[in-house]
Amino acid sequence: MSDGMTIQSHKGAYDVLFDKAARDGLAALAAGDRPLHVIVDERVADLHRDKLAPLLAGPSVLKLAATESNKSLEKFPAYVDHLVSHGIRRDHLLVAVGGGIIQDTTCFLAATMLRGVDWAFCPTTLLAQADSCIGSKSSINSASAKNILGTFTPPRTIYLDVAFQETLDGRDVRSGVGEILKVHAIDGPDSFQRIASDYHRLFTEADVMLRYVRAALEIKKGYIEDDEFDRGPRNIFNYGHTFGHAIEAATDFGIPHGIAVTIGMDMANYVSSRIGDGTEDHFRRLRPTLAANYAGYQAYPVPFEPFLGAILKDKKNTGAGSVTMILPKADGHLAKATHAADDDFKSACRSFLEDVRAA
Ligand SMILES: NC(=O)c1ccc[n+]([C@@H]2O[C@H](COP(=O)([O-])OP(=O)(O)OC[C@H]3O[C@@H](n4cnc5c(N)ncnc54)[C@H](O)[C@@H]3O)[C@@H](O)[C@H]2O)c1
Ligand SMILES: [Zn+2]
Known about the structure:
Blueprint: E1 5-7, E2 14-18, H1 19-31, E3 36-41, H2 42-47, H3 49-56, E4 61-64, H4 76-85, E5 93-98, H5 100-112, E6 118-123, H6 126-132, E7 137-140, E8 149-152, E9 157-160, H7 170-187, H8 189-197, H9 206-226, H10 241-250, H11 257-275, H12 280-293, H13 304-312, E10 322-328, E11 334-340, H14 343-356
Helix pairs in contact: 6-7, 6-9, 7-8, 7-9, 7-11, 10-11, 10-13, 11-12, 11-14
């Protein structure tokens, strides 16, 4: 796990440093001459106080709670004021320490402050470590829509220390595992089968978890280097997300993102078996692992009309009255599909949400 990984991007190559290299790299940043502006999850700053002490001792530290409202545009004037009052210049470095919320906030600021300032990322959630840390995207909310504003702005370096995982809540671990399962499903049925047979070991054996974090990044690396701006092949990473985002919106974000995505993958498999090319057999094969990962949320009420309203508004849709999703094909591989939001589609969604999921 100590070898690094290099990702190619439109802004040049950037490295993912693991464990000791990550800790050494962060220490070097804290001790270096380049002025830093640290944006840190306040919970992480508290739980990992000792480890982060050198970074947090710097003159510019912004501690934020990891809430969706804190990555909403309305909050940004205060962040800009903080950076301006701490003397930000173009040659300074923003350092994000936290999960996806801190990542999105910092990345958006880095992209727009002074027309672009470098940023570095120390991901502390499993979701951020195994998935979102690479791929360049930032997405922030406005009062009326989630993730509606964004940029493609890779960090300069990622400092990935798996020791941060030790303090995560069980639900945040399963949220990250949801994205890891997604990436393996994208890689194909054999890859999914492999992680499915190791599923329970992920939670008890740190080296098994590390192997799959690394595998997920390797699989994603292939796609983002090929299609950084998400115009074609990378679209497949939206598997589980059209349904997952609509579930999140309809439940007022009561379900963690990666768990909503896990339900969304199960739903995509089911809906495809009803109205697409997917098979019932494929749906049944993935189901036990997906259901295990959303255990505790299977009966969470998802009101149908708000769900449908959200799915019809999904930003990936191209035509009115139709829904664009990633669905399994007959051979279990995934592909983009557009389907009319007709009675068949609605009835498949409704029976999944009302009967199948809770069965
Ligand atoms: N930019 C992208 O590519 C991308 C991709 C996926 C998701 N996202 C966004 O990321 C957000 C979700 O991110 P997330 O799931 O990584 O987490 P998060 O930032 O929402 O944090 C989840 C919880 O974990 C806590 N936490 C973080 N690190 C911890 C640690 N080491 N120990 C204990 N608690 C810790 C946080 O305080 C918070 O309570 C959403 O806003 C989503 O839209 C962005
Ligand atoms: Zn996701």
